[in-house]
Design brief:
3 strands, minor pseudopilin epsh fold, mainly alpha, single chain, disordered C terminus, 230 residues, 3-stranded antiparallel β-sheet, 8 helices
């Protein structure tokens, strides 16, 4: 059984970048629906009790598109909430050094991230990920994520589906992405993810509850699956 994880901040905490109305709709309706459908479909597929990471990969391997889309969207959204904070701080330490190597600085990263997100056609996600050759910015379509991509470990993601920004920005995705990277991107979380990618600790894992539990999480974010190859 998968739970809908609570937001790590109040609904209004990310204003004015994202409104409380947007977060309520996004979390309480969209994310909730993905989790509920995943629970239904995973049980039907005989995957009840498996981690969400396993469900996503198994559904992709078996070309079970309905289960994959719902499970991956549930995972992506839980990761996305942690990629935002009402108290952002600039990247530092090994992450800042990696950004400098890959993009020539934080400004170069922002330019690449915003451009990738703006140029992405349709719904999806824009990621900052670590790989064997350093950091890179990529985008994925619809529910596609890094769990099914060998050698990529996610550090940050921003939601490109219109429900993530339309109430606040209408069709102006570019302004949304610019403000997101400047005002709410959680670099402290990205730093922990990079450390996990390099073997220090565990990255993001979707929180679960045991079948007999109704509230307490058996494991909590953060965590993630396989590390990129050395």
């Amino acid at each position: 059984m998968f739970i809908l994880p609570k937001l790590p901040y109040d609904y209004a905490a990310l204003e004015p970048t994202l409104s409380a109305d947007t977060l309520r709709t996004h979390h309480d309706k969209h994310h909730k629906a993905y989790v509920e459908k995943t629970n239904e479909l995973a049980k039907r597929a005989g995957l009840d009790g498996r981690s969400l990471e396993d469900v996503v990969r198994d559904a992709h391997r078996k070309a079970d598109q309905k289960l994959f889309h719902n499970a991956a969207q549930a995972w992506n959204h839980a990761f996305f909430w942690l990629c935002m904070t009402p108290q952002p701080a600039a990247p530092s330490g090994p992450l800042k050094a990696a950004i400098d190597r890959a993009f020539g600085g934080v400004r170069g990263f922002k330019d690449a991230f915003v451009a990738e997100g703006v140029d992405h056609f349709g719904s999806g996600w824009v990621w900052l990920a670590a790989g064997s050759d350093g950091l890179k910015v990529i985008s994925t379509h619809d529910a596609d994520d890094t769990l099914i991509r060998d050698g990529l470990f996610p550090l940050l993601v921003c939601d490109l589906w219109e429900h993530a920004y339309y109430l606040d920005y209408k069709n102006d995705r570019k302004t949304f992405l610019e403000r997101w990277t400047d005002m709410v991107a959680n670099w402290a979380f990205a730093e922990r993810q990079l450390a996990a990618a390099n073997g220090a600790g565990e990255g993001f894992l979707y929180p679960e509850v045991a079948a007999s539990e109704t509230g307490a999480a058996r494991r909590d974010a953060p965590g993630h699956g396989d590390r990129p190859p050395a």
